[in-house]
Amino acid sequence: LEGMFEGTIARVFRPKVQPAEIAKRLERSMEANQTVGVGKVFAPNTYEVGLNPREHEAFERYRASLEREMSSYLQDRAREMKLTLITRPQVKLVPQDNVRVGAVHVRSWLEDLDSIENAEQAEFTQPIEIQRTRRPQQVQTATLTVVAGSQNGQRYNLPAGRARMGRGLENEIVLEDARVSRNHAEIYPRGNEWYLRDLGSTNGTYVNGYGIRERALESGDRVSLGGAELVFHSRR
Q: Are the beta carbons of 69 and 19 closer than 8 angstroms?
């Protein structure tokens, strides 16, 4: 995988986010968002890759080529994993102000066939045995704002799916504190609520001073992970 995207792009520009890292995150999103049908398992066909605006701008000259290569990579991986694609995967790199330099936020979903207008896409269409799956509905908007620690003041807009928090760069929310575990906790929507779950961290996860394993959050709750403290806010 590391050598897949070497060549002109890699020689001319080496941003902090490398194409191979984006490919890994896309593959992980494909695995996490499969749709089970009757006798088939469907992979998402639409992928949105959120990058820091500065890194997105640096990729701009090569963005179309990179998106095509990522699409081909996902198509090959889906075939190897015996997943069904109803269209060629569509990958779009977009700038997002809340994504820090070096981070990658990926969302993926199975797009409704009615929205397919490109004739090139249409030739990949296969009959499916499940009801058409529409783009997932957005849950209530939620944010986490760092109020203590080295990243004080940084705000994260939470994605529609799960967001992992920890010291490791593979997390959606990276917390630069030595007391935070590499994979410390995750936050995710369930119904109309957001839940926080500890991932077996060394120093524990706390909400309003109480240690938790898993807990529904309310707007204004104070979340503590190691030396990092964040405030959760949501609005309907």
A: yes
Q: Interhelix angle for 63-80 vs 19-32, to 10°?
A: 40
Instruction: State which CATH number among 3.30.2320.60, 3.40.30.10, 3.90.226.10, 3.30.70.60 fits the domain covering 19-118.
Output: 3.30.2320.60
Q: Where are the alpha helices (DSSP H) in the chain?
A: 8-12, 19-32, 53-59, 63-80, 119-122
CB 203 within 8 A of CB 181: yes
- Amino acid letter, residue 200: G
Query: 217 pLDDT band (50/70/90 cuts)?
Result: very high
- Domain 142-234 listed as CATH 2.40.50.100: no
Q: What is the pLDDT of residues 81-112, one digit of tens each?
A: 888 888 889 999 999 998 888 899 999 988 86
